[in-house]
Write a structure and sequence with these properties.
Layout lengths: L1 H27 L7 H22 L6 H21 L4 H18 L4 H9 L2 H29 L1 H24 L16 H5 L23 H16 L3 H20 L5 H22 L11 H7 L6 H12 L1
Helix pairs in contact: 3-7, 6-7, 6-9, 6-10, 7-9, 7-11, 9-10, 9-11
């Protein structure tokens, strides 16, 4: 009877081992699987993240009518907020004197001499007045259209730079009201618009009562012109066009000083706002604006021709020969 007993014990041991192994297998197995709804939600989240990542790496070109509406509403809001900033004349005059004294201390206070020298040439200063009033909008809109048509992959990021720059400028208008040189009470500058009977500033003539007279810091004429100039310089193909891109902000700087609409320091403020706009776009799109692909990834994929393997066309060719 001892031998069968040992066999039974061996069988029992093997059974225990099998049971333990099964328990271990159960413990080592995977945890509870997500149900269908959870998997669908995870799939949608992953797809959304992938779409956002692709959009940041290669921004798609927006629809034209949406873009026109966005730009129109944005400029309307900009004008509304800019002109709604309280006109604190005493503080604006104080800031103007402070800026003027700072420039004198730095040895760059040449605005007065340039203003009087240019004013003595009637045809030149008249052209500058019209330049100040018109090209600020015409060139900016023209560059936006050019980017939208010729560089759609860079358009959204470039437009973001412009929007952020302008938004920061609105904060500057509110936080640092500044009288332009021609409105300084004791500056001795010439208001070239009034002197020559032209129109060239919303702060002179009939439009003065609906415009903020003391929104001079920072200069968006410089911020926007430099934005245009850089886009043309980096993206244009012809060298002479690229040279014009660099000349445009330089000419704008001369105009705003000659017409006594801004100090040099206002131009510096505009450049700082623009630099912040480029940094914001760099953070948002993970790449500098002009290094993004010229054509969005989706449009580039759609433009690629569909290739058919050669063997697919062999039966059709052989049947045609028959």
């Amino acid at each position: 009877m001892g031998e069968p007993t040992e066999i039974q014990r061996g069988d029992a041991g093997r059974a225990d081992t099998a049971t333990g192994g099964g328990s271990a297998a159960v413990k080592a197995g995977p945890g509870p699987r997500p149900d269908g709804a959870t998997r669908a939600a995870q799939s949608r989240t992953a797809a959304l993240r992938s779409r956002v990542r692709d959009q940041r790496r290669s921004p798609a070109r927006p629809r034209l009518w949406i873009e026109l509406a966005l730009i129109g509403v944005s400029y309307w809001i900009y004008s509304l907020v800019r002109n709604a900033v309280p006109e604190q004349e005493a503080i604006a005059q104080k800031h103007a004197r402070w800026i003027w004294h700072l420039e004198q201390h730095l040895g760059i206070a040449v605005e007065h001499s340039i203003n009087h020298a240019m004013d003595s040439v009637g045809w030149l200063i008249t052209g500058m007045n019209y330049y100040y009033a018109t090209l600020h909008f015409i060139i900016t809109i023209g560059v936006l259209v050019w980017l939208y048509r010729s560089h759609p992959g860079r358009y959204v990021a470039a437009r973001t730079v412009l929007f952020v720059t302008t938004l920061i400028a609105l904060v500057g208008f509110y936080a640092f009201p500044l009288a332009p040189p021609r409105l300084m009470t004791d500056g001795g500058f010439i208001d070239t618009v009034k002197t020559h009977g032209t129109w060239g500033s919303f702060a002179s003539g009939p439009a003065a009562h609906v415009s903020n007279l003391y929104a001079a810091m920072p200069s968006m004429h410089i911020g926007w012109s430099m934005w245009c100039g850089l886009a043309i310089f980096f993206l244009a193909r012809r060298k002479w066009v690229r040279a014009l891109g660099l000349m445009y902000p330089a000419a704008t700087l001369m105009v705003i000083v000659s017409t006594a609409n801004h100090f040099w320091m206002d131009a510096v403020g505009g450049e700082i706002c623009l630099a912040a706009g480029f940094l914001a776009a760099r953070w948002l799109y993970h790449e500098w604006v002009y290094k993004l692909p010229r054509v969005p990834a989706r449009e580039a994929a759609a433009e690629q021709p569909i290739t058919v393997p050669e063997q697919w066309s062999e039966p059709a060719a052989s049947s045609a020969r028959r």
